[in-house]
Amino acid sequence: MSITKIPCLYQGAGKENPAYLGGYDLIRPVNDPLNPDYWITSGETTVFDAAANNGTGADLHFYDRLRISKGAEGDCNPTVTLDLEANPLVFSYYPPHSLDVIFVLDVTASMMSGGSRKMALAKRALIQTINLLWQQNKETRVTIVPFARDAYVPGVDRGFSYDYLGTLFTWRRSTTSGNLIGQILGYRNGSFVSSTDMTVYMEQSAPIAASTQLSLYNYYRYYQIQYTDIYNDDGSAKADTVLQEYLSTVYAANPSAYTGNFITAVATSTPLTPSQLPYSMNDSGYENNTILDNMIWAIPYGEDTNTEAGLEEAYILLKTPGFTQSDDILRRAVVLITDGQANRSVNPEYRGVYAKPTSVNSDFLPDTAGEPWKYYLYLRQTLPTLLAEIANRSATSEELVLALQRAYEAALRVKNPSEGNASLFVLGIEIDAQTPGPYTRDDVLNIMRTIASTGSYLREATENGSESPIIEELERLVRDLFVLTGSLQLTIVDTINKALFYYVPGSIKITGWQDGLRLKSVSDSDIIDPADPDYTIYVKPALLPDVSDANIHDDTIVIDLGKVPFPLASPDSRTQIRITYDLANKGSAHGTHLHTNYDERTYVTFLEPNHLVADASDLSYNQPSRLLNFPSPIVACSADFSIKKFVGSSADNVNYKEISISACRNIYYRVVVENYTDTQLTFPLLYDVQGAETIEEALASQNRRILAENLVVPAHSAVEFPFYGKTDCRDTVLSDFAVLETGTTYLYDNASATVIDGTASYTVQYLNCCTGKRIIPDQTVTNVSACICVSACHNIRCIPGFRFVCAKPYHINLCNGENVIRLYYAPRC
Fold it and tell me: Shortest CA distance to 737 belongs to which of 664, 643, 639, 597?
């Protein structure tokens, strides 16, 4: 939208937009936000980035980071709408700082079902992303937390801790049809245990669990992986002595435990087959694998999707003293990688209650049939045995709701600056909703956006054949860790045209969106009724400021939005904010071109940040603010009648809504009632109240000046009531209301005057008390305060040949119109 301020044709005394408003016409030409002309933009932004040019610093240039618009709908009682959109500025770091990154990896069998390569591609993406992190800074440390029915807890020395028996793990062989378990390097074969009897299951599963613990993954360290664990100082890869030793000892002792596993080819130096290569970590095979390639390839699989458990383990790690290198939330990151919605969650009342070799079903039976099992997973009893409950049915709708809710709650702990204090990213791989279930795919995606630190920290990828392959999307997501985003600091000021309208109490509202998520105000409660039009399936982020009538002072709305987009934000973040409020006709609004607001006082001020320290995340907002005026909302109001009140300092010029006037001067008023209809109108009462600051005070006041009773106004005519008063030295602001009662309601208009300390003059006469004739010429004293009391004593003079006798009067009050002091003298004998 081009910014051309056209002086409003309706300016002038008594016009529809009174002269004192200083109005202009900058009218929005379209009402479609998709049309560029809907917006006024901030144009070019120039900021300084100390990290640019390898730390030498440079100015950066951005365009249209802020867009604003304003309109009004309605006639005599319009609704005003202010729209605002903001995008961040993007800075860099020099040198790139080290990070602590926890990858929370979904390793459920669905990542491999039906021959899917999601598991292999996610692992490849993980390898490339870790190398990318080390390209930026070799001091970055990476920890991997796989999760399924529970979290695989990385050991400080090596391997993962996972209670296979306690979680009632479902065993699969490497050659099981539909799930290519053999792609997990060195994962030892299991066999399906069909018994649902707890004792039998434990007896048959115990040796399988013991064998599984000997899988290759338990010999690598996934806790705080460092560059020096994988590479030499010259960048060459270190030899994988872990794999070599494993092959010569554990594998060699029982090769039959690996039937169908890719490690059999590695052990015999046999190239992978064309059908196996897509599931390896490199299309060229394993021969040039690094330690990182092999250890990621060896990460195990699990059953069910307990996202809460994975995020909770990340939280525990973040809270571990000494685990991270920095307290800066931008240097502490959790990356959740998953292919589906959470379908299991931790039972909060029985957290840590796992099955044991001696367990029986009665240990876990709920007190009441159909209630949750007394087990670490939340499962309502629908089947008679716990094993059958876990293995033979999908989660119920209630469990699905709780699973996502608790994953969200765990994410809150991770993100909370006073708790986990980390940025949280989510890579969703072909996310879908479980059916039957309570959610749609969009529901799941939106909830996962709330799990991330900001909605654009969620990225979605598909296995293949799309524009968002897994590897590229994960790298793109992690690249957000390498940059620093800066928001604009915004304040909205909006002044109502109080000559025509008044704000309707309680009507102001703020709504907003950021990165696809609807926002709420800080103090707003969550809406849980699906019938409510403002209900969302997800918990709205509480990022908007509280807005209420407290933001309105003397018809001016001031809203401090803070930093927008609201941190944390990605380079792709976009925030949309809308503020609405209602106005009502005071009584004077009538015409086709009415300004709802005081045009020059309706704007947004914004501060743009500079990045002054190259390797720090602090931004400086110390440069002068910029100002962007909103467009002028124009409405038409065809009223049947109106009441208007004007004020002036002289009887022949009573045409103003506000004036400044000296104390002790006459002040003149004019009240006009106009009938725009074709018929005569009668009004029960017209009165004026002086000294009221609000219309409520005026209506309650008993000190009324009755201007007319049963006022008759002929068709297409106006009736005028002039009157005047006098300002007093005690006056500061005179706010006066004229009220027209219609029989069913009332209209009103007001005018005000600011009383200033004016000046006056007085004359001193020096007279012969015997003759009354002047002894010397009169003395006129000018430019004195009109509000002082003048004493004759200060004006007595020594006159040769005369002596002072008396003064009449001894004191005068200039404000009362007294302006002559007579001093009487007698001739000396």
Answer: 643
Count of positions (residues) in the chain: 829
The pLDDT value given to residue 14: 46
Amino acid sitting at position 39:
W
Mean per-residue pLDDT for 190-195? 89
Whole-angstrom Cα distance, residue 67 to residue 564?
A: 12
H or E element that contains 734: strand 733-741
Cα–Cα distance measured from residue 54 to residue 95, given in angstroms and rounded to the nearest whole number: 8
Q: Cα-flanking dihedrals φ and ψ of residue 556, to 5°? A: -115, 125
The CA-based angle 191-157-335, given to 5 degrees, is 80
CA 387 to chain centre: 45
Q: What would the two tokens of residue 62 be?
A: 């951005």
Selection from 170, 54, 99 nearest residue 327 by Cα:
99
Closest CA relative to residue 248, chosen from 266, 230, 260, 261: 266
Residue 15: predicted pLDDT: 54
The strand order across the sheet containing 626-629 reads 552-553, 556-564, 488-496, 597-607, 626-629
How far is residue 278's CA from residue 91's CA, in Å, rounded to a whole number?
38
Of residues 34, 92, 88, the one with CA closest to residue 62: 88
Q: Centre a 10 Å sphere on the Cβ of residue 527 and count the other Cβ atoms it contains.
A: 15
Cis peptide before 29 (omega within 30 of 0): no
Name the E strands within 452-611. 458-461, 483-486, 488-496, 501-503, 509-514, 517-521, 542-544, 552-553, 556-564, 575-585, 591-595, 597-607
What is the maximum span of the chain, computed from C-alpha positions, in angstroms?
147
Identity of the residue numbered 516: G
Q: Distance of CA 223 to CAs 144, 156, 158, 246, 317, Å?
A: 7, 6, 7, 19, 10
SS3 for 406?
Answer: helix
- Cα–Cα distance measured from residue 452 to residue 427, given in angstroms and rounded to the nearest whole number: 10
Token output for 551: 């933001």
Residue 321's identity, in one-letter code, is P
pLDDT tens, residue by residue, 728-780: 888 888 888 999 999 999 999 988 888 888 888 999 999 999 899 999 999 99
- Give residue-wise pLDDT tens across range 522-572: 999 999 999 999 999 999 999 999 999 999 998 899 999 999 999 999 999
- Pick from 504, 315, 358, 336: nearest CA to 429: 336
Q: Distance between alpha carbon 273 and the CA centroid of its chain, in Å?
A: 52
3 state SS of 126: helix
Of 170, 152, 163, 204, nearest in space to 389 by CA = 170
SS3 358: coil
Q: At what angle do helices 397-415 and 441-451 cross, to 10 degrees?
A: 20
CB 140 within 8 A of CB 333: no
The two structure tokens encoding residue 391: 């293995």
* CA 311 – CA 328 distance, rounded (Å): 19
Reference 619, options 487, 747, 490; nearest CA is 487
